[in-house]
Amino acid sequence: MLKNRYILSSLLAFSSLNADSLGSLLFHGNCTTCHYETKTVSAPSMVNIRKHYKTAFSKKDDFVKYMSKWVANPNPETSIMLQSIEKHGIMPHLGFEEEALKEIVEYIYDTDFAKSQKGHINQNPSPKRNLSNH
Ligand code: HEC
What we know:
Elements: H1 2-12, H2 19-30, H3 46-56, H4 60-72, H5 82-88, H6 98-110
Helix pairs in contact: 2-6, 4-6
The structure holds heme C.
Heme C binds next to helix 4 and helix 5.
């Protein structure tokens, strides 16, 4: 996963980005290939993940610490969503840097994915076709 590492490091170099837009950029560039905002497809939706983590960790600090550690090193023993592992298999190890993960997870904590759909490129992957064209 050298490509991911490269993307994350080069984005982090843009210090003019504020924390929120950096987290958003990194999230949409690196997580939404598997995690859709509201739909569970090949991985649990972000709405679902956020709900589980908010129930387990009400404080933002704890939420960010636990989730960024987990994503850095996915492990069934520390998972709080074992049913998702049974259903989809364990999330692959992606080789993200800890600092980048914190930005991403802060964005996840702060974002109500059921409401904010803007910026997602994968939500409807197939273009709408004009079916009446015959
Ligand atoms: C290649 C696909 C893929 C990518 C990319 C991916 N995930 Fe996952 N993720 C999964 C799958 C599958 C699961 C469900 C199984 C599990 O929990 O391990 C999962 C589970 C999770 C969980 C639940 C952890 C738990 O307690 O079990 C979190 C949190 C998570 N992903 C965050 C992220 C974040 C943040 C990113 C982007 C940095 C990301 N994922 C990128 C596939 C992916």
